[in-house]
Amino acid sequence: NNTVLWGVRYGLYTTAAFIFLFSAVVTGIIYTDLNSWFGGQDPGWEYFAAHFVGLLTALIIWEGTAFFTSHRWFPTKSVTAAGLTGPATFFVQGFGVAMISPIPTLVALTVCAIVANSIGGNFGVACAAVGICSPLGFAMAASCVSPIVYGADDALDSPDIQRARETTVPLVMAGESLAAEVRGWSIGVSIITAFAVMGAFDQEAALKVGGTLGIDYIGDGLVFGFAVAGALTIVCYAGINTLAVGKTTRALFDESIRQFKENQDKECDPPMVVAAAIYPAVMGVLLPAFYMFLVPTTVGFLAGPRALLGFIIGAILAGGAISIVFCNVGASWAKSKTAIEAESLYGGAGEAAHMASVAGARAGGPLKDVAGPTMITAIKGMAAVALFIAPTIQVGTDREDIQECLAKFFSNDANLSRYVRSWEHCFDWHRPYWFIIPALLLLLVTAFFYFFFWRLDGTGPGKAAEIVEDEDESPNVAAYQVSQP
After folding, report:
1. Nearest-CA neighbor of 318 among 179, 187, 122?
2. How far is CA 426 from CA 216, 315, 434, in A?
3. pTM given for the model
């Protein structure tokens, strides 16, 4: 396992060195004091420096994630040891370590954004984002290791060839480490690219009011309120997808029970099991996908670009930090389980520490594989939607202070025309009533999914309960309950 991980590190830093040299050559070709091949006149080395800062940030994020999720280092070792006293302490220790784990990533991104902005402004931040994204090819290759070695380990899970698993188990541990590190890097990529997109949105939406950028209004109640709304929305997306995992699990359970009940002397029907899981899985993904487009559109058309900017910033900050916690805690729990089984730590399989790690690995799967990646995707998706609708938002230049326009709105002498004018002055653009279209679509989509999917347990919970209770009639059902606690 250590040999594999050191080989991966060799590949990572070799890739980084190649990217550094290649970007230096390209910078020298595109930017020069003389007329370059592309007609450039700008020296451009400040952009190369911003790109290099981004590349260093990517390496720091990669190593920081490895420190908190690898069983070689004390954070995950402490989580494994906490399982000796039961699942409760195992869970508490895992979450405690995971809540500290965002520090390297967020500090590195903060320094990267400040330095890159000092070097080249918003374009410098964009160059830094390219630098963080530059190990993409290596990350894609590394992310393929985990499913490959998992498949090999499952194929060799036979008593006749147990010696072969002495090779595949360390590879599984290495694959889990690489998957966690790639997830940490992808979170950093999402945060910095979303920030760069917000810079483009700031320019495209013409947020200059009175000679200052819209971000200067962060102390405004309107911007702050929608920033809080953005933070809550991004967590809601993750919650919806996590609930979909629960419904999919129930569908698999019910279909398995049905087959044990009805086909006692026959082989199982795998296509039916797959079909039972596909429907809740797809339906659970569709609702956050619709929200990802409709919610920012509604906010932008209702309250203007400054409110939308605050909304996306709140989503970036909350989603970035919480996704790191979810991904790292799930990876730490999974690595603890694998380390106990592979190295016979604390008594090995079947002991208290192992049982706690099994519970943690099962609970951590939806966190690291569903909730965390959902937030990563939603951050980039909503930022892209904001940039897409930016040209359609008409910025008003006579906006009043939010407190003043609300006071006029609720004044005693207010009439319908005053209501309309105060509404327009509260926000950043005229004709804000166009938000009704995306808002109605949002309500219709929510109602449809609620009444036709979420409100109903289409997997038949009542039927499943009857089958489970009827143990005497079907010994296979009782055997299934024992093997799947």
Report:
1. 187
2. 17, 23, 15
3. 0.80
